Protein 1
Amino acid sequence: MFRTRRLRKTENIRRLVRETKLSVDDLIYPLFIEEGKDIETEIVSMPGIKRFSLDRISKELDEVIALNIPAVLLFGIPSKKDDEGSETWNDNGVIQQAIRFIKKNYPNLYIITDVCFCEYTSHGHCGIIYDNDVDNDATLVNIAKQSISHAKAGADMIAPSGMMDGTIAMVREALDNSGFLDTPIMAYSVKYASAYYGPFRDAADSAPSFGDRRTYQMDAANRDEAMRKATFDDAEGADILMVKPALSYLDIIRDLKNNFDRPIACYNVSGEYAMIKAAAKNGWIDGEKVMMESLLSMKRAGADIIITYFAKEVAKLL
Ligand code: PBG
Ligand code: ZN
């Protein structure tokens, strides 16, 4: 008889044949930075995650450093919005200040910035509106301005998340022309129009005020299209390809892993976090175990890097 159970007999043999391991080296921790003073607001639908103003964020960063988490992904919440999101390229904007603050006080922490507009536009869309839709090419110009402003402030890596076509080529050229030849780009290559973003939009105050994002984010039904989009980002020079959300899209993560010679990242998004937290709070699941199993499944699917709100909790358990 074929006996596959022989190699499951004890924890020691299971350790020896274990194929996938989670490591703190894999983790990126997202941070919400709000413009203003004395702000430390818990996000109701994301227990344990807060919006901080810069003067209150040191405790959080100390923890990230102590846990040896290599990188943070910054999201800004500005005090004023307009229809273009012009605060995004203000060299003294909330994110630019945050980058300088972190670089000065935590020089060893790797800083990745999310480049988008939805937290900064009065209409909540990820770019400039023309004719009731986001105008791709007009938005590209502003993506370049925002990226350069982040790089000038000291960002280590740029992560454009708006799903505009031509973004990676545009950002690469803009960075290169400004002397940032060595600043890598993490492409939100395959970003689906997903209901799993709900809690984030509360957290970042970025819900669209009309319509939805289905003219720029991908249809959840599509797998071939994911390859097409990743192929373009790869060709345009993305250094890392990302899939978002993670758990419902493990097949896409594996497709990218098998087809591209680039590190693959996935974004374990707010709704995935909220579901586990809510069920655990009710005593319906073992939150810690489900968290570890979920993140492990992302690695098994092929993710080299996981962006997750669980980063601190996971790091404590590893
Ligand atoms: C938008 C953006 C989104 C997230 C990060 N940046 C999604 C959206 O609102 O469409 C979601 C992250 C999460 O849910 O954790 N540029
Ligand atoms: Zn956006």
Note: The radius of gyration is 20 Å.
Protein 2
Amino acid sequence: MSAVMVDVRGVHKSFGPQKVLRGVDLQVRAGEVTVVLGPSGSGKSTLLRAINHLEKVNRGSISIDGELIGYRRSGDKLYELREKDVLRQRTHIGFVFQNFHLFPHLTALDNIIEAPLSALRLPRKEAVARAERLLERVGLADKAGSYPRQLSGGQQQRVAIARALALEPKVLLFDEPTSALDPELVGEVLEVIKGLARSGTTMVVVTHEIGFAREVADTVVFIDGGVIVEQGPPAAVLDSPRHERTRAFLSKVL
Ligand code: ADP
Ligand code: MG
């Protein structure tokens, strides 16, 4: 078995009085794909944001490749990292959002080279060569000079995936990457994500695409009310869920 790449332990997160994550434990092994399912408001985005330390957790810890995210441990105490150290950690964690979040004033190529230039201080020539390879990989070699507004939603999302890959992250997090797309554009984005899965990219994908989960996931996690209700191989969770809440959810989305 490969090493644990993402290790979420006992994570609790509240917004004011509202408990959004109530003790989440999740391990993702290197090279594996975990698909997270769950109803709206169940805490899926908060969990992804916590992994990236875009949200601070109230209790518990998150490590990527053995490195504690957002904190350093000294004895049995945790100290919050400085912003620049958090930013360095984030370069190891790619994030793909529902609404693409591309820079509108930059071309596809410039969107992709921005972080390698600023965060990795890669020479421009190398960053451009890397971006061109990535555009090729997501099937957009001919769109390097296009601005986001000149691209379809599916193309924009594929640029966003290339951008997330440009820092060669240890793990890629997807938050409903196809939810904002017209139905006919969903497939092209899922195909790109499937390709990444085949090449051994470690991924956590929040999605309602059950067919994709069945085909690509090593583990399917069902989250409801801020707790993982059940998890396991897709066939187990999707075809013979053990919990009523999972059954009820699946009956609505299938
Ligand atoms: P999901 O992605 O599963 O739909 P979220 O993680 O986005 O769920 O949200 C879970 C709950 O946390 C929701 O009730 C949402 O309103 C609340 N929430 C999320 N982010 C914040 C925030 N920054 N401030 C206050 N409440 C939030
Ligand atoms: Mg969400």
Note: The pocket of adenosine-5'-diphosphate (ligand 1) is lined by residues 15, 20, 38, 40-46 (CB under 6 Å).
